[in-house]
Design goal:
The chain is α/β, with parallel strands linked by helices. 36% of the residues lie in helices and 11% in strands. Strands 3-4-1-5-6 form a five-stranded parallel beta sheet, with helices on both faces. A two-stranded antiparallel ribbon has the order 2-7.
């Protein structure tokens, strides 16, 4: 299946830039790591590489924290790391390896190819969230603009639809994840087979030292009220803008993804019946 072109805003960061001395050392490690993964030389404990990816602003950082806090015999990094780089040169000292990076959605085929001749299992957790919440979301790194553009969202959706056709993937919806973490934890455990040491609900009690919590704006108990944030009046203009984007086809995509049964929710916006907040004098 042909893959759509990757937006320039995402493509620029897909592959690492030169870093000294890492970029000089890594090529020398390739033969050694291949032998280890084949089980031909050295001690290998790694059984499964779990790759968290999918839509940005869909709970991947929160889920990463919960997994690192609640799953045992796991090698993780407390921040975003490129799955391919860790697959090629990361530690094999644990039974499970975890990487999280939304942009790895564009590199799933390359990650699969890397492991195709290695005795390591590969599992993808693909995160998704109501597009209206994603497209009205801000990020600490871009406080004055919406973090995900419509072009980027559309392209990710096309890659996402291709990725979920394989049996090495499982889909996690943000809304279900935060409302019933115990169910999500059990589903992931059944899919991956990892070792649970704490329930996901208690992740905030076991935060690993050094975990980068910047994108979470602090660590606290789960709050399902953050779903459907897009309904706030302050986002009225943004929702109207998204509905008028013919290429986005927001209403039909919401139906495809199971977030709406039909397009009736948009009638009030399109008819101008949503009352906008008054501007301060």
């Amino acid at each position: 299946m042909n893959r759509p072109p990757i937006p320039a805003e995402a493509e620029a960061s897909l592959h690492p830039v030169f870093q000294f001395p890492k970029s000089l050392i890594h090529p020398l490690m390739v033969p050694w790591m291949w032998l280890v993964d084949k089980g031909l030389f050295g001690e290998k404990r790694l059984e499964t590489h779990v790759v968290m990816t999918g839509f940005p602003r869909s709970g991947t950082t929160l889920a990463q924290l919960m997994v690192e806090a609640c799953i045992g015999d796991l090698k993780a990094y407390g921040k975003e790391r490129r799955a391919l780089e860790i697959a090629r040169f990361g530690s094999r000292a644990s039974k499970f390896l975890l990487t999280k990076r939304p942009r790895d959605i564009f590199l799933i085929d390359e990650i699969r190819e890397h492991y195709s001749e290695r005795s390591v299992n590969l599992k993808f957790i693909l995160f998704i969230r109501d597009p209206r919440d994603i497209l009205t979301s801000y990020h600490i790194n871009k406080p004055n603009e919406y973090y995900v553009s419509t072009i980027r969202w559309k392209t990710i959706h096309e890659y996402w639809k291709i990725a979920i056709q394989r049996s090495d993937t499982v889909v996690v919806k943000y809304e279900e994840f935060v409302s019933n973490p115990a169910k999500t934890q059990q589903e992931l455990t059944d899919f991956i087979g990892w070792d649970v040491i704490h329930p996901f609900e208690e992740f905030h009690k076991h935060v690993p030292k050094g975990f980068d919590v910047g994108a979470l704006n602090g660590v606290r108990k789960l709050d399902s009220q953050n779903s459907q944030r897009w309904r706030k009046q302050s986002y009225t203009d943004r929702i109207c803008e998204l509905l008028m984007d013919e290429e986005l086809e927001l209403t039909s995509r919401l139906i495809q993804l199971g977030y709406e049964p039909d397009a009736s929710w948009a009638d009030e916006y399109l008819a101008g019946k949503i009352v906008k907040p008054r501007k301060a004098a």
